[in-house]
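Lab manual, section 2.4: Encoding a predicted structure.

Procedure: take the sequence of the chain (148 residues), apply the prediction step described in section 2.3, and record the output as structure tokens. A sample record is shown.
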Amino acid sequence: MRKILVVFSDTHGGHRLGLMNPHVTLYDEDEHGNLTPYTPRSTATQKYLWKMYRADIRRVKKLAAGDPIVLFHNGDLTQGNRHPAHLVSTRMADPILIAKANMVPWLDWPNMVWPMLVVSGSTIPTTDHRRASGCGRRAINCAIISRA
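Recorded output:
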């Protein structure tokens, strides 16, 4: 039986020019620690990227025709915090939530092979492009790879 290997990279979840599921839920926190869910407004670039991403997913599903699909994200699932003016939000959790929401269209396919393979790339959501933090990698593994 054949397997379909889907390789993609540099989705930069959390950047205003990165991939962002238009249905992602982020949270504002008030001074008492109460969380209020909200959906950030997508930029024109994000709307275009999401449209192309969904079209590509449909093409993969058609190509696979029920054969197993393996996802391999080759790095930069999220944007670092080096350029805060270009971010959807400056909260460190938000790029992880956005990256997870970006994977939602793949999650319920019965022919998906798990775990999803992820290379951390140059950007870990808890740091900028110049440093690395194991914390970000563990958070992505828990949030996305485990399908949680």
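Check your result against the sample. The chain has one domain: 4-145.
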